[in-house]
Amino acid sequence: MAVSVPALVLPGEGLAAVSEEIVVTIRRRAENVQDVPVSVTAFQADFIEKQGVVSTKDVVKLVPGVQFDQGFSAADTRISIRGINNSRGRGSVAMLVDGVDISGENVTAGGGGSLLNMRLFELEQIEVIKGPQSALYGRNAFAGALNYITKAPNTENYEFKIGGDVAEYDTYNVRGAVSGPIGDQFAWRLNIAAYNTDGYWNNNETGQPVNNFGQPIDAGNTQKLNGSESNGARLAMLWMPNGNVDVNASVTYAKNESDPRAVARVAVADVFYDSDGNILPGVTMPQFSAFSNQAYGQWLGTVTSVAESEVMLSNTGNGGEFAGSEDELWFGTLKIESRIGGMTFKSLTSYLDNDATLQEDAEFQNGIGTIFMGVGLSVANDYQDTTTTKQFTQDFILQSNSWDRGFWLIGAQYFTEDVQNQDFSLGWYNDPATSFALPCGTNPFEISCSYAEAQAGGVPPKDTDRDTDSASLYGMIGYDFTEKFSATLELRYVRDEVTVTTNTLIDRVSQYLLHVPIDLDFGGGSPAPLPASDKQTTNEVNGRFALDYKFTDAFMLYGSVAKGTKPGGFGTSQFAVPQSSRMEPETLWAYEIGIKSMWFDESLRANAAIFYNDYTDRQVGVTITDPITNWPAAGIVNAAGAETSGLELELAWSATDNLTLALGYAYTDAEWTDFNYSNIRLTGPTDKDKAICGNVEGNCSGAPIAGIPENALTLVFDYVGPIGGQGLQWFLNASAQFEDERAVADQINTAYVDSYWRSDAQLGLQNESWSVMVFATNLFDDDTVTWGQHYNDFKDGMYGGANGGEPRDETIMAFLPEPRIVGVRASYRFGGQ
To answer: In order of start, what are the domains of the chain with their CATH numbers?
Structure first.
């Protein structure tokens, strides 16, 4: 288990006493965290504010065993828990807001989702739950869940609160709240927030006047990177017509804009392999021959730090800067709760509408790439798309509230999601003639050189529509055999139906291999009728069974077994037609044994757990021969198996009335047990498969799972001391996080990002009404790269080959971390209580 840091119950009390009860709601009812046979980490309101937690990234860094990684854009964000991550399909971790799952699935970034980056409004509590929660929360809680509980309207008194941060890099974060009753039956709460930072890094692409053929390219790009801006508001209303009925309604608006990230190519390939996967000794340059097999190269090693001068994004093909990403979100909920005798009926309705745009550099060069026999990478291979996501969820729940032998609930849920994506990027907006030094527009396909020119000329984008309908029945029963011995059973039956439709037969693989969009339907015919559509329907039963025994009120032993499934669907990130990208469900069996205990007059909380996960049918992206076009294309198979196991420890100690210390540790062993390309591909492993696995079979079994550190540690120190009288206090709060090195790719011969330490601290003054502090994130300005991405080397790794221009070599793109940021944070409140 990770650190469960108690709240600042009132300013001036420091971290709450360890003995104070922490109530969590992850099992859809209020329970003491020490009585729940599930690994739960809870953060409460004042601690959240003091730490400056405004995003999921801020939460996850305090929880060992949980990773938050972002690729090139906000749309390529994913979370892993206990070694369970994903590269295709829906995310593995559900993101819940007041019990409503708003997790999404990106169309063009496999396994990613931009909603995980949403900035958070005023929160009462955050709960991080480890292990499958598919029985209670459905399709996205495959590896666990994050539950954000917003502050409810004040039904007793009016309260006002304002706060803000001012920091380096022109950073500010302003927030305010007002709440109170309206008569005896109504109450309301309004939150507003605004955030901005100008970015930490500069791009350093100084321009290349002409390409290899003397054609003008660009004058450079020195834009700011890693900046962001966010504005939003939330209005919540509570109606209490009588003592047995509560009606809660809320509406949230948020607009988030993010600049492109500072990313640098670490190195060109430095190790090359022959067609059997053997290392070629002494080879410093790629070996290849025209229209035949080539040596395959990749970069191996450990990324430590990267200088800002190495960040060189290109431009948009028409000389502009990249806009980055933008999300505009509307989210509404309606919750009705009625207490009838010994039961409670709940209805939870939600609607989400999110519009996202993205414009990123996809190949980090302008003009033509490596030239071989007149063939090279064409211009403006930049990335631009728009995505509209609409979600509707309806939950009905009936549960006990007075059964003396335990508790029970039954529920029904309907979920629908409509996602529409338009992709304006990649090769179909490039002119193949540029590969042969011909002017733009002088080729028989009449395709423009950039997406801006293409849109003006009426060239259609790639349209992808994904419709999801999900219906489930679920239930839970907890039964107390004795006062000490209890059992819990959770079950859910879910039926998912996913339909994908597209207007073209093009895919990224054939774009980069062939340079020519031979399968676009521009009125000249197509190998198959368009639009192309396919449907995938899956039926699954998921569950959890747990036993717990309370030896004393302060010591509990528990064990559980749970099954989670990630639903089937379509891997739309690189696909040509839906039929070639079908994915069957993934399955996870999770086993856990743990203890929850209090010691020394409840001044020390000591919790621990050991776990084992058996992960099968992993969705893997491969290159296939498209059955319609007969060209190489991107495909998906369910072919891999993995195991993760580990130990988690949580200690929180009230050492004195003024000092609280906490420690969280996670050891995770995560590796592939079945990842053999000889079984994945009917035609046998490719040269690339053999190279990345390092053997002639193309067998990567035994490789580490990318992105998972073996050891992770969090330390928290909090001291509060009085200054004279009048309730004035000073405080020092500090935290430190350590993560081991992590593999960047799922292969035996792989690259890593290095281990690192990060520290944050706050020093300030407070009383019951206000607080002011100086804070620093990344206190010691550690510049170790914390994450990177395995990527095609489009600049120096493109060779002729059998089809021309194949991306034979791969490299690591490293994301520069945030530097040290120092600022001032203050808040003031009155009323309430």
So the answer is: 23-831 (2.40.170.20)
